[in-house]
Amino acid sequence: MKVFLDYCMWFFGGVILFYMLFVIVSYCTMLVIAMLDLRKRYKLDPSEYDDAHIDAFYSKPVSLLVPAYNEEIGVVDTVYSLLNLRYPQTEIIIINDGSTDHTLQTVIEHFQMKPVDKIIRTNIPTKQIRRIYESEIYKNCILVDKENGGKADALNVGINVSQYPYFCSIDGDSILDEKSLLRVMKPIILSDGEVIAAGGNIRIANGAKMQLGSVTETHLPNNYLVIMQVIEYLRAFLMGRIALSKFNLVLIISGAFSVFSKKWAVEAGGYSTNIIGEDMELVVNIHRLIKEKKEKKRIEFVPDPVCWTEAPQTLGVLRNQRRRWHQGLFESLWKHKKMTLNPKYGLLGFISFPYFWLVECLGPIVELGGYIYIVVAFFLGKIYYEIAILLLLLFVIYGVIFSIASVLFEAWALNTYPKKRELLRMILLSFTEIFWYRPLTLLWRCEGLIRFVLRKSDWGNMKRVGIAEKEKNV
Amino acid sequence: MMKLSISFLLAVIVVLLVILFLFTMYLLFQRQREIRFEKTRDTYLQNYSQHWYNYLINDEIFSIVLVPRGRAQVAAIEMIFSSYLKNIMNVKVNHKIKEFSNLYLKKFYEKDLSSKRWSIRMNALYRIADLRIEELLDTCQQFEKTKISEEEFFQLLKIYSLFQPEWFIEKIKEPEVNYSESEYRRLFVLLEDDVFIRLFEDFDSWTKNIQFAAIDTAAVKRNMQYIDKLKQLLTHEFPEIKIRALKGLYEIGVIDEIDPYVPFVTSDMWEARLMVAKIFNHAPLNYTYTYLEQLLQDENWWVRSQAAKTIAEDREGIVKLQQFMESSNDQYAIEMAQETVVRKQGNK
Predict the structure, then answer these.
(1) Could you say which DSSP state residue A384 is in?
(2) Any long-range contacts for A142-147 (C-beta under 8 Å, 24+ apart)?
């Protein structure tokens, strides 16, 4: 029995150590790529591009889709932020997904919506549309009232109703910076359509001052849980998105703020309604389509454009959110598992999929295993101390050092939180990450995996539950 | 071995923490400098904005106190100039800004062009074009000979298009120069009419992106002398060129004859049929109705929809659509006509 236990401990210790080293090397590589990219742009004046492209002549019209389910509080501010956008040609389509609160009435009253007759081209089959309204004050603002069918179905209705060649999905409680659409469209415009989808950077709005749909001042919130999420968003941004995007390997662009070419999205079947991570699913489907049609198209993540969203402030809501994200990630990867290591899909199959499987999806199990190993090792006696200490040190590099590095590099390159005190607070809090925040999120993510295995079919018609559920996978 | 690894990892962590600590110190120091920079810039803005207004708008005499001393003051002047250039169209103001920049800002941008940092060089190129610092043209040409990025070369083209159009035309002919359509549009919009017309005359020798950008720019300039050029392109061998030309003509919005457009009513390309349906919006309905009725029964939804909209725009349009609904047996066309009539009446 003891021999067996010994073997188990050595085996698992080795696997976890090896895994941690692999993850640390991957993250380091991505951090270096991201830094080289950001360093080039350091201090470049962005207004030059904005001013040149504010004219409709250089840009392409975009339909802005705002799916809303029970969002009577946030939706008006979101629409105002869209009306404030500096972009020459847009239409705003608010889709009320059978809300049970006063979302419909609030929008109708606030924007003086009047019913109109309109024949809609059904590019993607959806649930029934009840009525279409048009604003009397803002001619480019449309409200679609439909039967409840979930966020994906609402977005598909938006795509059907839209008249422009590009659409941008925005969550019903998110706020866009006035130049964000202009900048997220930049790769699409400059590449003459070679880039067919682009996602923007999501930031946490808790603590920011807002007025009529615009963020006027950013402050670091007081809630430690939210600050940890701010740090986590910075990490994800520096150690993932930028590097993957450089090689056209992005699998997730945030559903809270992303632009797609309508033609490609329709051809990919629109948003899938039977899956939790509908945004990731659409991106993977489009990637698939690109490879199958052998076309030279790209999907990009744009580091600069900012969409502000509110982060969960309590453990309960955060748990719910992380569980759901992880379940969504696993579901999408599982559905497209055949793409993994499939030469037909090139680097996507050989780098992106294995990375998402090993680091993003199965990572929590191994990492949590590491935490358990450390605890067990200290009970079992000193022969395992060394592996346990090694693991602990790797966790320190992985959790603490990477987090501090992300906070500092972000402060250097983009400077979202300009006050010295805020910077120091984030650095100090990063030291505590491995002791509470990391294990908690690991547990919740593992819970998501278990839920996927046990209750696969329960997630058919996912309703959105409230303010904290809006931002998609970090 | 394990012991060695632990000490190795500990050493790695300590080294990394020290590096991060030093980086934090550097950042804090840097931030302090930025704050000082912003303070100087804001003081200049506060003290001299009114002087600038008096000099630029009220024609008061130029004061030497306005000459910048240091980078922060240059930044303040850039902000002042940018707001005037963006918000006021005044030849005199533009001239004064140009004169001042050529005299007092030149040396700053000249120095920036030799910076190691790409972003600093780019910012300098932006300013040279925006503030029309013609005196740096030679420096720019020298700069072109160094190893520069595609973005920098694009900015150089912009500068050439402003200060030396001949050189610009030569440069874009070079085979290794290849930008996107939208970038060429950004360049062509800046060209004087005579240079642009010349560019148009060599139409077939250009690459596709230049051709498309030239058509779109001709459309947006809304200049009558481009109409004939665009009409000539309606018989071009490439379908995409024909569609773009149709789109350009629609955007200019002056239709003096319908004959050149009639063949497109039966075109194989739905995009061409759609553009004709749009173009007929600018012609009287009694000349175009026969064709529009044909387009109303088109197999393509967009074409049908546009044809119905164009008919409905005319004073007699609604009546014509109602007559059509009574006489036709094309269900799709009738539905489209009906929707358009309902919408039109709803809007009244």
Answers:
(1) G
(2) A142/A91, A142/A92, A142/A93, A142/A94, A143/A93, A143/A94, A143/A95, A143/A96, A143/A104, A143/A107, A143/A108, A143/A111, A143/A113, A144/A93, A144/A94, A144/A95, A144/A96, A145/A96, A145/A104, A146/A95, A146/A96, A146/A97, A146/A98, A147/A98
Q: A184 vs A168, A190, A256, A474, CA distance in Å?
A: 10, 11, 13, 18
A155 CB-near residues (< 8 Å, 6+ apart): A65, A67, A95, A169, A270, A271, A278
Domains of chain A, start order: 2-39+345-469 (no CATH), 44-230+245-311 (3.90.550.10)
Whole-angstrom distance, CA of residue A157 vs CA of residue A160: 5
Is the CB of B11 inside 8 Å of chain A's CB atoms? Answer: no
Tokens at residue B221, please?
């300039």
Contact present, A220 and A425 (Cβ < 8 Å)? yes
**Rounded-to-integer distance, Cα A211 and Cα A75, Å:** 14
3-class SS of residue A277? coil
- Let me know: does B158 contact B126? Beta carbons within 8 Å: no
Cα separation, A366 vs A368, in Å, equals 5
Q: Measure the CA–CA gap between A40 and A304, rounded to whole angstroms.
A: 13
A175: β partners:
A308
Quote the CA–CA distance of A33 and A240 in Å, as a whole number.
10
**Amino acid letter, residue A155:** L
Give the span between the Cα atoms of B337 and A423, in whole angstroms.
62
How many Cα atoms are found within 13 Å in the side-chain-facing hemisphere of A473? Answer: 26
| Tens digits of pLDDT across chain B (348 residues) | 445 478 888 898 999 999 999 999 999 998 899 999 999 999 999 999 999 999 999 989 888 899 999 999 999 999 999 999 988 888 999 999 999 999 999 999 999 999 999 999 999 999 999 999 999 999 999 999 998 998 899 999 999 999 998 889 888 888 777 888 888 888 888 888 888 888 877 888 889 989 999 998 888 887 778 888 889 899 998 999 999 999 999 988 888 888 999 999 999 999 999 999 999 999 999 899 999 999 999 999 889 989 999 999 888 888 888 888 888 888 888 888 888 888 777 655
> Does the beta carbon of B339 lie under 8 angstroms from any beta carbon of chain A?
yes
Distance, C-alpha A238 to centroid of its chain: 13
Per DSSP, what are the bridge partners of residue A90? A62
Nearest to residue A95, comparing CAs of A51, A122, A65, A53? A65
Q: Residue B284 and residue B282: Cα distance in Å, rounded?
A: 7
Its pTM stands at: 0.84
Q: Do B6 and A397 touch (CB under 8 A)?
A: no
Whether B82 contacts B49, CB under 8 Å:
no
Query: b/e map of A193-226 (b: 16 or more CB within 10 Å)?
Result: bebbbbbbbbbbbbbbeeeebbbeebebbeeebb
**Has the ipTM of the complex gone over 0.85?**
no
B121–chain A nearest CA distance, Å: 9
Interface of A to B at Cβ within 8 Å reads 40-45, 47-48, 51-52, 57-58, 116-119, 121, 189-192, 386-387, 389-390, 393-394, 396-397, 401, 404-405, 408, 411-412, 418, 420, 423, 427
The reply to whether B126 touches chain A by the CB within 8 Å rule is yes
DSSP-assigned letters across all residues of B292-311 = HHHHHT-SSHHHHHHHHHHH
* B119 chain-A contacts, CB cut-off 8 A: 40-44
Question: Measured between alpha carbons, how far is A157 from A123 in angstroms, rounded to an integer?
Answer: 9
Q: Are the C-beta atoms of A295 and A202 separated by less than 8 Å?
A: no
